[in-house]
């Protein structure tokens, strides 16, 4: 019998709030380069990014949502308390890092939250190790691939335009950045919004609101894309500054290469159903374009602080989620 309780509606609302905060927290990923190169003013850039964040569901399947919904922890152990703990772990960690201006991963915060709450309930048997291993591997592989693609693009473009004046190159790539920023925002919306879709879908599944095989209802797809798009509209200017200027200074050509390298990485990951971090991906790409100029162009101390945040995100979100799960059980 379907259980459409107040808890279910409340948790769906909390999940959409997380998706909104994901857009808020990760808006910098989509717009940092196009803002820092002054191709678009911040106000226009967020509208640009929000639109492509929203329409991403038209271009991608729901492989990432399937992985998050049924491939991180076993759907059979999911209940309201597990989802509450997972969402609170991710939300609290996102707010902490957003306040501090640290571009950590909303994606891995959510994965850490699911693992922490699941383990708090039944122990390590809750974990689907294959899916978790795939996600953990992406912590290393997605920024590495973004780095290599962006580095290769910078070198190729520099060779192709070697006889052009710097002014002509800047003018050309200012136009192309509209395309690359659109592609990156599309990849961001396609990968990140699906993580919340997976959480809501597995919650509905645990309540019997999804009959038959596990899948993501269309209304969940639209709600999650809209929540992320709205979050992007509000932006995250602290993180824009870190991503767009504190790691390395970018020209329009470098911004194009970083966004294109990041977008290709996200398209590949989304097609394979791997929930990667858009933050990790674009950071790796930005470091790649900076390193192509010269290694001293990269502020490695800032990059080091970001890497530390990557490493601690999943365990910290898991700890917060396990604590929230335990408190919710006690309160109930």
Automatic annotation (TrEMBL):
InterPro entries: Phos_transporter (IPR001204). Keywords: Membrane, Transmembrane, Transmembrane helix, Transport. Its main location: membrane. The chain crosses the membrane at residues 7-25, 45-65, 77-96, 108-129, 136-162, 218-240, 261-287, 307-328. Coiled coil: none annotated. It comes from the Bacteria. Pfam families: PHO4 (PF01384). It is a multi-pass membrane protein. It is found in: Membrane. This is Inorganic phosphate transporter. It comes from Methylocystis borbori.
């Amino acid at each position: 019998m379907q259980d459409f309780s107040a808890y279910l509606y409340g948790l769906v609302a909390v999940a959409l709030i997380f998706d909104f905060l994901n857009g808020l927290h990760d808006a910098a990923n989509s717009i940092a380069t196009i803002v820092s190169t002054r191709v678009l003013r911040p106000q226009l850039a967020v509208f640009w990014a929000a639109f492509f964040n929203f329409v991403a569901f038209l271009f991608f399947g729901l492989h990432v949502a399937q992985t998050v919904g049924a491939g991180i922890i076993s759907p059979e152990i999911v209940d309201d308390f597990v989802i509450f703990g997972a969402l609170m772990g991710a939300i609290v960690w996102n707010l902490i890092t957003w306040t501090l201006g640290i571009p950590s991963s909303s994606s891995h915060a959510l994965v850490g939250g699911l693992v922490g709450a699941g383990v708090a309930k039944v122990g390590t048997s809750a974990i689907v190790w294959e899916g978790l291993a795939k996600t953990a591997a992406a912590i290393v592989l997605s920024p590495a691939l973004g780095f290599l693609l962006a580095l290769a693009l910078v070198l190729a473009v520099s060779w192709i335009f070697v006889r052009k004046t710097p002014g002509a190159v800047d003018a050309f790539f200012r136009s192309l950045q509209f395309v690359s920023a659109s592609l990156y925002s599309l990849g961001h919306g396609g990968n990140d919004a699906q993580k919340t879709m997976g959480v809501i879908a597995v919650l509905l599944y645990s309540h019997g609101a999804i009959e038959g095989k596990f899948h993501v209802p269309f209304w969940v797809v639209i709600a999650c894309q809209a929540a992320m798009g709205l979050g992007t509209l509000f932006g995250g200017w602290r993180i824009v500054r870190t991503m767009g200027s504190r790691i390395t200074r970018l020209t329009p050509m470098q911004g194009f290469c970083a966004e294109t390298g990041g977008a290709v990485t996200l398209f590949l990951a989304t097609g394979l159903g791997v929930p990667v971090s858009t933050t990790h991906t674009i950071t790796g790409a930005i470091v790649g374009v900076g390193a192509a100029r010269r290694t001293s162009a990269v502020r490695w101390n800032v990059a080091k602080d970001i890497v530390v945040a990557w490493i601690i995100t999943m365990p910290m979100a898991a700890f917060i989620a396990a604590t929230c799960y335990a408190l919710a059980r006690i309160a109930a």
